[in-house]
Write a structure and sequence with these properties.
The complex is a heterodimer.
Chain A (H helix, E strand, L loop, with lengths): L1 H5 L6 H11 L2 H17 L1 H8 L7 E8 L6 H4 L2 H11 L4 E3 L2 E11 L4 H13 L5 E5 L2 H14 L3 E4 L3 H5 L15 E5 L2 H14 L7 E5 L4 H16 L3 E3 L12 H10 L3 E4 L3 H13 L8 E4 L6 H5 L9 E4 L16 H12 L6 H18 L6 H9 L2 E4 L2 E4 L8 E3 L3 E7 L7 E5 L19
Helix pairs in contact in A: 6-16, 7-8, 10-11, 16-17
Chain B lengths: L1 E6 L3 H18 L1 H4 L2 H26 L8 H16 L4 H23 L5 H19 L10 E2 L8 H28 L1 H11 L1 H6 L4 H27 L1 E2 L1 H4 L3 H13 L6 H16 L4 H17 L3 H10 L9 E6 L5
Antiparallel strand pairs in B: 1-4, 2-3
Classes of the chains: A alpha/beta, B mainly alpha.
Amino acid sequence: MSIKGRNIVVKDKSFLNAVSAKTLSRRRFAAVSGAGAAAVALSGRAYGQSMAMSSPDTMLKVGFVSPRTGALGAFGQADGFVLDQTRQKLAQGLTVGGKTYSVTILDRDTQSDPARSSQLTKDLINNENVDLVLATSTPEVVNPASDACEASGVPCLSTVVPWEAWYFGRGAKPGQPSPFKWTYHFSFGGKQFAIGYLSAWDHGGVATNHKLAVMDPGDADGMAIRNNLNPVLAKAGYTITDPGPYQDGTTDYSSQIAQFKAAGCQLFNTFPIPPDFIAFWRQAAQQGLTRQMKIVQSAKFGLFPSDLEALGSLGYNILSTAYWHKVFPYKSPITGMNGIALCDAYEKATGTQWQQQLGASQSLLDAGFAALQGATDPKDKAAVAKSLSTLNVITQVGRVDFTSGPVPNVATTVLINCQWVKAHSGPYKLDYLVIENAADPNVPVQHKMRPYR
Amino acid sequence: MNAYKVERWTRQSVFFSAAVGALLLVLAVGPLVFPPGITDRLTTLFIYIILAAMWNALAGYGGLVSIGQQLFIGLGGYALIRISNAGVPMFPALILAIVIIALVALPIGELMLRLRGGEFAIGMWVLAELAHFSINLDPLIQGETGTSLLALNAFTPGARRADIYWMGLALMILLLGTLFVLLRGKIGASIQAIRDDEIAAASVGVKVQNGKRVMFVLAAGGCAAAGVLNLATTISYQPHAFFGIQWTAYMLFMALVGGLGTFEGPIIGAILFFSMETFFGATGVLYLIGLGVVALGFALFIPRGIWGEVEARFGVRLLPVGYFLKMVEGEKVK
């Protein structure tokens, strides 16, 4: 893209004139000649793209915004593969209402930077004229992308952000009508954590003294969990020891560890950023806390194999809920593959262990293209937004149903509790196995939960 | 006999100032003729130019190196969220937010300007972090989750884009114009004396503290303006994105590469930074490495920056902020 754009940074006016006569509207030409060479040079990339935009009305353009590099890079690790597969399947185009549209998916890497996410989304909207924006993985990526779409009147579908952080985190108020007309989101929320946790702790077959240690940081996720999840756990009969919020990036956890040891806690639940958990858990091992633990449950840390590999044998038997797992029985309507086929293909193609974002990214594409297909006119943005609002389809992660969400614009998906165990065979060090299926009985249970120690 | 003439307006600077005026006129009609993508990107360029010029006002002229100017970027955005949430219409709210933060900068300046050199630089950073964590406690902001400037969704996309563009252009002209007038006035001379040698300046009667105070408040207001504009273009307010140290890195880059302590330099630095971001931003890590290499290269080999070097070599000055002393033949003096 940028190479094409750079051609425009040419001082030779005759070239500009020749180009403009053929492909530019008069208005745009006036803009270029008016702004002079400086402005053309500055905005060369953007300009070059809009020049190539000769978009006929049988071409669908979809933006895909995700973090491929930077601090959140683990989320985007599998996106390249998922996108390639989908592009191959849609190479023949997408048929909507008897008319076949060619499909272009433009993927963008936010580099884990919220400002860049906003910028890239605006670029997709203004210069590429996309018909739909898809965004995934963490509020840092999704919220700015959704905001850019909402403000520009472009439909947007997103996933993998706790829905409360997406809906309330963008200024919606509880009990009031939804302020969003263009943006839709499907993901798990606080309630789904409680279902997965209690199912494993109460019925998983590991006896405990019901004394629960919690470590929730002072960031958005930590506060949401402290306020919404902990009361539910207390009501379910767990005695909670909560030393209070700590700052992300804390390096010394001695006082919390001492408190948990004194209280004799046998369960541990936390919501940390991965580097903090690694620091905390090593100290807990040195100071003898890990020896008394029967159940160790973590969220945010423990989504991907790379998190656990950093912890070595201390990571064995930690529980972490999955928003998707390879044994989910659902098939992607685009690729026709179930979870096992998808993961096998991924491992074969990349030599890397499967991870849960594979299914989530695929389901985002599944739901997005289903919405385009369900629209009366996929080139009409209002029609696509309307189609999103009533979308009800089976995707790679299961059912995505916007007609029955907790608030308008939101559909919830499940969380299934899983355990990281030392792999017995195979090329990878760890296995990630389903231990309960309270939220979706179609997901097969693979493994009986083991105590941490 | 030879005579000397003090010149402010050289032929070059007259010509160039006229050219700048013409360019601004063209930019003023921008949203009417530019495609939306270009309008949007130019707004970003205005924000960068404001940031570069403000950091330069502080460091290049005031001799105050701050690595915490993101304090005012974050506070500007926060003020806009709060004011807009209170029901003030969008465009008055934009102005109000900037004015409030400039006023807030007055007592902050009183306190911080007692610190010197490295203490001031670090002190500003500490203050920025402190403000960041305090704002996280506001239930409206919801910690790092942040919130969005929903009031902007009431505008049609085209009108919003154009209005924010004009707002950015107007603020850029206003802030750079203020700096220009200040530098040409009495305070300009005293500030440049402070920059060259603070103690010597004080010894000849320059009111050091006064000059610094003016620059501090101007830079604070300017950074708040950049924060407000940034929020208006991105809509999402996530505290760690607004209070991030990367803003200082950008400002430093633009001012250093363009030419610290010159009026034109930071503008050139901003345009260079903006072009690099536009053309190479998509390359990710390589882009960041490239930025670092460019900054290092300039610091090592061209410490005066692009414009500092040009000015020193060719004696050109495109915008007349200083004076030239010219020797003329006696009989030609009238």
